[in-house]
Fold this protein.
Amino acid sequence: MLRIMRQDLIFNRNNLLLMLAIMSCVLIYFSARADGFSPRAYFVLAAFYVGASMGITLAAREDKHKTAALICSLPVRRSTVIAARFVLTWALMLLTLVYASVLTAVLPFSQVDLSSAVNVKFVLVGLLILSAVFSLMLPFTVRFGVMGVMLFLVAGQVLALLAMLAVHFFRMGNSSWSFPLRTVSQGLRFLLGPNSTFLHMLAVVAVILFLNGASFFASRALYARRDL
Amino acid sequence: MNAALEISNLRKSYKGFVLKDISFSIPAGTIMGLIGPNGAGKTTVIKLVMNLIRREAGAVRIFGRDNIAQEPEAKARIGFVYDEPCFPPDVSLGRIASAVAPFYPRWDGKLFARTLEEFDLSSRKKFKTLSHGMKMKFALALALAHDADLILMDEPTSGLDPVFRHELLVRLSTVIQDERKSVLFSTHLTSDLEKIADHVTLIHEGAIVFSAPKDEILETYGLVKAGGRDVSASEIPGLKGCRHSAYGLEALTAELEAARRSIGPRAVYERASLEDIMYFISKGEPHA
C-alpha cells in the first residue's frame, strides 16, 4: 500500500504542489476574514476540502491519462490500490488541517482563533460533512473517472438550483420538501452547539466510519469490475 | 517442460465479439508470437493475462500461479509492454522508474540506466516529449530492468521504424538466451515473428486456429497454385482457404505433402509464409 501511495505522490507531485498553492491562498483569505458567520467552520472545511480534493484528483488524473492500466499491471491487487487512495486522502486531509493551523498561527493578520477553530467538535463535524460528500464522490470517480467528477458536481449544482427555484417560486421554504435540509441544518447546529455531548460525538465518529467504509467497499468493488 | 504461461478455456465477450474458450501455453525459454488480423482478439488475450479486464470463464496460470488468486506474485514475474504505453505525461522517465521500481524485488537500477543509454533516452525527459518509438523503448527498458521472466508485448513493433524494429527483435532474442525467460509477442507484422518466434498462435475471430512450433507450421502449411480449371478447391486435402483469380486457383493447405501426393503435377507447391497463412485464414474462401 505504501508503494502505491508513494507512486501516486510521485506521479502527481506537480498537481499536488499547485493544489497546495491554491489552498494556501484560500486559507490566507479565510484566516484574514473573521467577519460573517462561522469563520471557524469555513477554516476547518476549507482545510479538509482541499485535502480531500487532492485524493479525488489522484483518481481523476489516473483516468485522464489512462494510467490505471499501468497501476493495475503492477504486482498489486486492485483492492490495495483503492485502500491506498483512501489512506492517502485521509492523510492529506489531516495534513492540510495541520498545515492550515500552522499557517494561521504564523500569519500576522490572521483573525482566526485557533483554539476555538481547531476543537474536537469542529474537526469531527467538518469530517462528517466532507465524508458525506466524498464518500459519494469517490465511487463515481472510480467508475467514471473525470466524467464521474463532472457528473457528480453538475448533478449536485442542478439539484441545488432546482431546490432554490422551488423555494423561491413555489414558496416551499416551510413545506415538507425542505424538511430533510432543515433537519440536517438543525442537526449540525446542535452538534456544534454547547448541548452536544461526548456520546453525540461518538455517534458522529460512527457515521464517519460507516460512510467511509461503505464508500471504500463500493469503490473497491467498482474498481475490481472495471475493464481497462 | 515447464510452462511460463498456461491459458485454458479463456472466455470474454463484448458486444459483437466473443473470445471463444481459448487455450494455449508458452514453454519457458521460448518466444511465442500471437498473430491475427486486427480485431481478432490478441489484445483481449493479453489484457486477460494481465487481469486488466475480467474473464468470464477459464484460467490463466503464470509460472503455475493463478493470475487472479495469486495476482501480485504472478505479476511480479511479468514485464508488460503496452501497445500504447500509458505513463503520466508530465513526469520524467527517471521519476516514473523510481515510482515503479519498489514494486519489483529484482529491480536493477544500473541495468535500467544502461538500457536507457543504449536506447538513447535521457531519464530527465518527460514522457510526453517522447515519440511513439521512444515510448516503446522506455516501456521495454522498464520491463527488462526488473528481470521479468515473462515479457508480454502487445503490438510492440507497429508504428516503429525498421531500424528499431530490428534492434527490438535482436534484443528479445538476447533476452531468451537465459532459458528461464519467455516472451509473448502479439503482432500483425508476421515478418518480425518469422525472424525470432519459436512458437506461433494464430487467433481469428476470437478463436484459436492453431498454436504450434513455428517450424512445424511452416513445414506443414503450403500454397497450392493451379492454372485455369486444372484443380478444384474441393480436391485439396487440408484446405484452409483459397482465392480465385484470372490466372487460376491459389489455395492454402495445412497438409502440403498430402496435397502434393494427391494432386501431383497439375499444380505447383510453395511453402506458405505466416503472412500467407494469416491472409488465407482470415480472408480466403474456405469452400470455394
Q: What stands out?
A: Chain B has a mean pLDDT of 87. The interface with chain A takes residues 47, 50-54, 71-76, 78, 80, 82, 86-91, 95-96, 98-100, 102-104 of chain B (CB under 8 Å). Residues 221-283 of chain B form one domain.
